[in-house]
From TrEMBL:
Belongs to the FAD-binding oxidoreductase/transferase type 4 family. InterPro entries: FAD-bd_oxidored_4_C, FAD-bd_PCMH, FAD-bd_PCMH-like_sf, FAD-bd_PCMH_sub2, FAD-linked_Oxase-like_C, Oxid_FAD_bind_N, Vanillyl_alc_oxidase_C-sub2. Keywords: FAD, Flavoprotein, Oxidoreductase, Transit peptide. Pfam families: FAD-oxidase_C, FAD_binding_4. Its cofactor is FAD. PANTHER family: D-LACTATE DEHYDROGENASE, D-LACTATE DEHYDROGENASE, MITOCHONDRIAL-RELATED. This is D-lactate dehydrogenase (cytochrome). Residues 57-240 form the FAD-binding PCMH-type domain. It is an enzyme of class 1 (oxidoreductase). Its EC number is 1.1.2.4. One of its GO terms (molecular function) is (S)-2-hydroxy-acid oxidase activity. It comes from Kibdelosporangium banguiense.
């Protein structure tokens, strides 16, 4: 298939329909909340990577709105539903599965003005915020009270609470504090018809364990904006940890590092917040091209980092145990400077174009892309190997791609839920239709490997993009049909983020 036949392409709304839409929006929003200028619209069509820059113009919204309250969001959605115009929620725009890209144009609802702290409950340790708030800013405010909201993705400074809900994200310190789904207690949610409901465990805003009725909170998380817009959320808080320990260890072999990361996780140390394994390709990439990294000698083949948070005395005791386990697996400690520096750099790696290499070794600017999957610990080596083969094949065919290695991240003290990710450098300026088609096929193959090993296509980013999304029905089986039923029931006019997750199939007319 050439990209010009892509089902994702939609023409912009004709000018008279844009005029009608804007006039209707101006009845519920002020003029500065309704943006129609080209730059305002184009900038809200961009996502991190890899972006088919040569096809940017196909995905530009007709209008952008900046609502300031749940009521305004509800009004906008009602108008969209009435006029049958697509609506796409956008928070930080850092999602890696094109979730916030307006595939069918229409209205982008940018929620960044809804960034207030509405209530801080110091007794029950919760905070209620607009979903346009950023975790970094929120934690700056919470620090004065000795508290943190520990949802801590690598995109911590730039992703927002609403986007975390829309993707049901993964926190790098989730083994200690849980992930977004555990940390968001409840939220106000605007349905595709414009009705507002509150979802949580039960109806309480500050309850995290209820057995009353369906567990709707989980339905309205991770849907990539296809079932509505979260506007105000109540979050769970924790004491700000006194101590952080983030030792980095090197290994002579991948096998030793792999066996070590499993042992560290299984140790069950209470302050353990996560451990990550970098394979040979990742170490080679860091050594070669990551300026933030202090290069390791050639005999270093794999790395493991463990992270602990808590009171000073408990972190010291847990750390001692983890150091002993690491030594038993042949680890060499890289020292405080690398350990602390590398962990501190976790929030600002990858956001900008980096050095990459053509297959002949030429240095070129590349943007970072990753394919993430959830797999069991036991499957990590086989998945890693198969993924490298797929990217090696891609590289044989094109100079546009580079293999930046695999990492695997534990979520707790068992072998379930390893976030396993292959990072691929992409020379975006050189992406053309052929390279794009090859990339889309590689994404399909990468997803197929995860499923074949009993995993899920995505641990945190979602699986909406061209390529990977084709395997969603295979992964979910009958569950995919239920998704279609839910979509049809809640969004009868298919206005909420259409073109994602193959949900258009819910509206296909079948011949009798
Ligand atoms: C450098 C970098 C590092 C990253 N590291 C991580 C990581 O460690 N862990 C991780 O989980 N992810 C990571 N990501 C991916 C991304 O940051 C997450 O998916 C994040 O949750 C997206 O948040 P956002 O505010 O940018 O959302 P957006 O990109 O704006 O939106 C994401 C999806 O949610 C929908 N959405 C947005 N707002 C709402 C709302 N209010 N209500 C309902 N749906 C909504 C959108 O339509 C879209 O489908 C990383 C991304 C980058 C660029």
């Amino acid at each position: 298939m050439t990209v010009h036949e892509s089902p994702f392409i939609t023409e912009p709304l004709p000018p008279d329909r844009v005029d009608t839409l804007v006039a209707a929006l101006l009845r519920v929003l002020s003029p500065e909340q309704v943006l129609t200028a080209k730059t305002d619209r184009w900038n809200r069509a961009r996502v991190p990577a890899p972006f088919p820059v040569h096809r940017w113009s196909e995905r530009v919204p007709d209008v952008v709105v900046l609502p300031a309250s749940t009521e305004q969001v509800a009004d906008v959605v009602k108008i969209a539903n009435e006029l049958r115009v697509p609506v796409v929620p956008r928070d930080g725009g850092t999602g890696l599965t094109d979730g916030a890209v307006p595939m069918r144009r229409g209205i982008v609802v940018d929620v960044k003005r809804m960034n207030q702290i509405h209530e801080l409950d110091l007794v029950n340790r919760t905070v209620t915020v607009g979903t346009g708030i950023n975790m970094l800013k929120l934690n700056e405010r919470l620090a004065a009270h000795g508290l943190i909201y520990p949802d801590n993705p690598a995109s911590y400074p730039c992703s927002l609470v609403g986007g975390r809900i829309g993707t049901s994200g993964w926190s790098l310190i989730g083994a200690r504090y849980g992930h977004t789904r555990d940390l968001v207690l409840s939220f106000d949610h605007v349905l595709p018809t414009g009705e507002v409901l509150h979802v949580g465990d039960g109806i309480g805003r500050k309850i995290s364990k209820s057995s009353s009725g369906y567990q709707l909170k989980h339905l309205f998380m991770g849907h990539q904006g296809t079932l509505g817009i979260a506007t105000q959320a109540t979050l769970k808080l924790f004491p700000k940890p006194e101590a952080e320990l983030s030792p980095f260890w090197s290994f002579d072999s991948y096998d030793a590092a792999y066996s070590c990361v499993g042992a560290l996780a299984r140790a069950g140390v209470a302050t353990f917040a996560g451990a990550v394994l970098f394979d040979e390709h990742k170490v080679a990439y860091l050594r070669r091209d990551d300026e933030a990294y202090i290069p390791q000698p050639a005999d270093v083949r794999a790395l493991v980092c463990a992270v602990m948070y808590g009171y000073d005395d408990e972190v010291r005791a847990g750390g001692k145990r983890l150091f002993r386990i690491a030594r038993e697996h042949g680890a060499r400690y890289l020292g405080d400077e690398i350990s602390e520096g590398d962990w501190a750099a976790r929030h600002d790696r990858y956001a900008t174009p980096l050095h990459g290499r053509t297959k002949d070794g030429q240095v070129i600017p590349m943007s970072w892309h990753c394919e993430d999957a959830a797999v069991n610990y036991s499957a990590v080596p086989a998945v890693t190997k198969a993924w490298h083969e797929i990217v090696a094949d891609l590289r044989r065919r094109s100079d546009v791609f580079d293999d930046w290695g695999v990492f695997a991240y534990t979520s707790g003290s068992t072998g379930v839920d390893y976030l396993t990710e292959i990072d691929v450098g992409i020379w975006e300026q050189r992406l053309g239709d052929d390279a794009w088609a090859a990339w889309v096929q590689a994404k399909r193959d990468i997803a197929a490997v995860a499923i074949a090993h009993g995993g899920s296509i995505s641990a945190c980013h979602g699986s909406c993009r061209e390529g990977e999304v084709d395997l969603l029905p295979q992964e979910l089986g009958r569950g995919f049909d239920v998704m279609l039923d839910v979509k049809r029931a809640l969004d009868p006019n298919n206005i909420m983020n259409p073109g994602k997750y193959l949900l258009d199939r819910a509206f296909e007319v079948t011949s009798p």
